[in-house]
Design goal:
By secondary structure, the chain is an alpha/beta fold. The chain has 17 helices and 17 strands. The chain folds into 2 domains: 163 residues, no CATH class; 253 residues, no CATH class. The strands form 5 sheets. Strands 5-4-3-2-1-6-7 form a 7-stranded mixed sheet, with helices on both faces. Strands 12-15-17-16 form a 4-stranded antiparallel sheet. Strand 4 and strand 5 form a beta hairpin. The protein is globular, with a radius of gyration of 25 Å.
Length: 457
């Protein structure tokens, strides 16, 4: 997932300002190297560091620069940061070191970990804070599970997967879709993508069942079904692009303009995902040609009781996947319920304060949708998605959390429906021409996995 960091209120010497605004300055990343037992986990992200737009600092000689602690006799822990080419030495200090050593021995903290481990975690967090890094990466369980503690909170610790997704978002919003495949000596091997190819390949990999559906639909008498299947993929790709735009607006200083733009992209995010479901319904209609009372049913939509009943007579399994309160239908109903407000008064955003700082934008759920949305959220998340409900008929959702919760569920539901369409019902189907996976001449599994890491999916 893509995590939220309050960039707007932070000052930093290595790269001043918000990376979504100061696009010509490097994104500075600090890796708590000692918390990682397996160096291979970091290999992909370290490869991406160019020392210019992505500046990675580690306590090992890797990335862009090495950080080294310098013992002193006073109450300050000094550290230096040196670029790997030996230039650009800078020194920093963590004051009040004795205070952190003392706090680490207190029972309130030692109930979670040993005092030495707590002290190490405090120093890592204060290093990130004093370094003023944009992104602090750690696998330290204490840091990740207690990131709201005052000593830790300002450093914004995050795990490697979330941090890689955030780095990917910043890079994409800077129009950088390049992936470094390998660095050997002075040579750098890259895979260059544009916006379209990055999101297209990512969507194809996220929807593996599309291979079977597209190649099956391609054998229909005309190109209509094939084009509809490809459209479901492109609509998913468009939703992912909107997801990026929504996050970008959340990271900017909160104004009427950023709020309005976030809602603008949310509208098209919802439209795109619902459209992907819609074209799959049209494919099912073409293949099964369901009838009710001897007639073809209109409108062709999963949310039509009559059409779904007609489909059930041809394929009860597929219809069951989209029955009311089923997982796939819940995802569609969530998206469609909010999408429909493009035809009405429109969705409304709001801002709020969390832990004394500006928090991500809120979406004010329309009053008439609150009961249904609340029930769907409970079924989809098992109660793990906490929402703001000051009154029973009022609901606010953090916009960033909304898209991070729903995006993987929507992709899973779309792929489920693609997989369930029985393409053997295509007249004259030649099974030998049906593909169930990517062809040999496609991106490697490693590169596809890299794209998904950067997408956070």
């Amino acid at each position: 997932m893509i995590p939220y960091v309050d960039f707007a209120s932070r000052q930093r010497p290595l790269a001043s300002g918000n990376p979504f605004e100061a696009t010509n300055e490097p994104l500075v990343v600090f890796i708590d190297r000692a918390s990682f037992s397996d160096a291979n986990e970091l290999e992909f992200l370290l490869r991406q560091a160019d020392g210019d737009k992505l500046f990675i600092v580690s306590t090992e000689k890797e990335g862009s620069a090495q950080l080294a602690y310098i013992p002193r006799e006073d109450d300050v822990l000094e550290f230096s940061v040196t670029k790997l080419d030996g230039t650009g030495v800078a020194r920093y200090g963590i004051p009040s070191l004795h205070q952190y050593k003392s706090l680490a021995t207190e029972p309130n903290f030692t109930r979670w970990a040993a005092a030495n481990d707590i002290e190490r975690a405090f120093i890592a967090a204060k290093t990130a804070e004093n370094l003023h890094a944009h992104v602090f990466i750690t696998e330290d369980k204490f840091l990740l599970e207690h990131k709201d503690i005052g000593i830790i909170a300002s450093s914004y610790p995050m795990n490697l997967a979330d941090a890689t997704a955030l780095v990917g978002l910043v890079q994409r919003r800077r129009n950088n879709f390049k992936i470094v495949v390998d660095r050997r000596g002075g040579a750098t091997i890259t895979s260059s993508h544009g916006r379209w190819s990055f999101f297209w390949y990512g969507s194809r990999d996220l929807l593996p069942s599309a291979w079977r559906l597209v190649t099956g639909c391609a054998q229909m008498p005309n190109d209509k079904c094939r084009d509809l299947a490809l459209t479901a993929i492109s609509r998913t790709s468009n939703a992912l692009k909107c997801r990026d735009h929504i996050h970008e607006q959340i990271f900017l200083e909160q104004t009427n303009s950023s709020t309005e733009d976030a809602i603008f992209y949310l509208d098209y995010y919802l439209i795109s995902f619902v459209a992907a479901f819609d074209v799959l319904a049209r494919i099912a209609d073409e293949i099964y040609q369901p009838v009710a009372k001897g007639k073809r049913v209109k409108p062709i939509t999963w949310r039509s009781k009559d059409w779904l009943k007609g489909l059930a007579s041809e394929d009860a399994t597929l219809a069951g996947l989209m029955a009311p309160k089923a997982f796939n239908r819940d995802v569609l109903d969530f998206l469609a319920s909010l999408r429909n407000y493009i035809h009405a008064e429109g969705l409304q955003g709001a801002t709020h304060i969390k832990n004394g700082k500006p928090a991500p934008l809120l979406l004010h759920v329309p009053k008439s949708e609150v009961p249904a949305i609340a029930a769907i959220i409970k079924r989809l998340s098992g109660g793990s998605w906490t929402v703001d409900r000051p009154r029973p008929d009022v609901m606010f959702l953090e916009l960033g959390e909304l898209v991070e919760r729903i995006t993987p569920l929507a992709i899973k539901a779309i792929d489920n429906v693609m997989a369930a369409v029985d393409i053997t019902k295509v007249p004259g189907l030649d099974a030998s021409k049906v593909q169930t996976k990517a062809p040999a001449k496609w991106l490697s599994k490693n590169e596809l996995a890299d794209i998904r890491k950067l997408l956070g999916l």
